[in-house]
Amino acid sequence: MRRTARLLTGTALAVAAAGLATAPAYGGETGSLEVFPSSAVPGGDVTVNTAACGDGGTAAGDASAVGAGTFTLAPSTHEGDAIGQFKVPPSAQPGTYEIVAKCTDGRQVSGDLMVTLASMRQQVQPRGSVKTGVGGALGPDPVQTAAGVAALAVAAAGGTWLLHRRARGDGI
């Protein structure tokens, strides 16, 4: 009796393993959904594309996870991809969201969109003066600036006068 149970169990495991070997590895999902930019701010535009639908294929996109609803992916001339766009709602919260597209032939692909509060592309320009202790031509005190300019003018005039006397041969 035990020997028969082992034989049946072994046969069942072999059949199950053979069935798994022939099953699709990704549950029918082929290709991927490219999301550009992969990181967006609320109110920003996002473009998605996929080659999973084949040449001339279309797809129905779903960005409801981020609150943008559905959109259409239409065929394009770029490598036979289906391309679509949607706008991230201004009320979107920071986080990572799954964007899904389902081709007309039933294939489904997905990609991730990261919503951030600040754009990574913006650069902040510095403002104000640098506090080095040396001062500057447009420092905070106009009286000190005027005194510095006057001191430079006196030094330049004195240097010119000394060079002129030396050139004439009067000596110093």
Task: Give a quick set of tags describing it.
172 residues, alpha+beta, disordered N terminus
Give the topology string: H per helix, E per strand.
Answer: HEEEEEEEEH
Portion in helices = 25-40%
Shape: rod-shaped
Structural class: alpha+beta
Residue stretches low in confidence (pLDDT < 50, at least 5 long) are: 1-29
Would you tell me the overall average pLDDT? 78
> What's the β-strand tally?
8
Give the helices and strands, then pairings.
Elements lengths: L1 H21 L11 E3 L2 E2 L4 E6 L8 E4 L7 E6 L6 E6 L7 E9 L4 E8 L26 H27 L4
Structure description:
Helices cover 28% and strands 26% of the residues. With 172 residues, the chain is an alpha+beta fold. A hairpin with a 4-residue loop joins strand 7 and strand 8 (108-115). It is rod-shaped and about 100 Å long. It contains two helices and eight strands. It has an eight-stranded mixed β-sheet with strand order 1-3-6-5-4-7-8-2, with no helix packed on it.
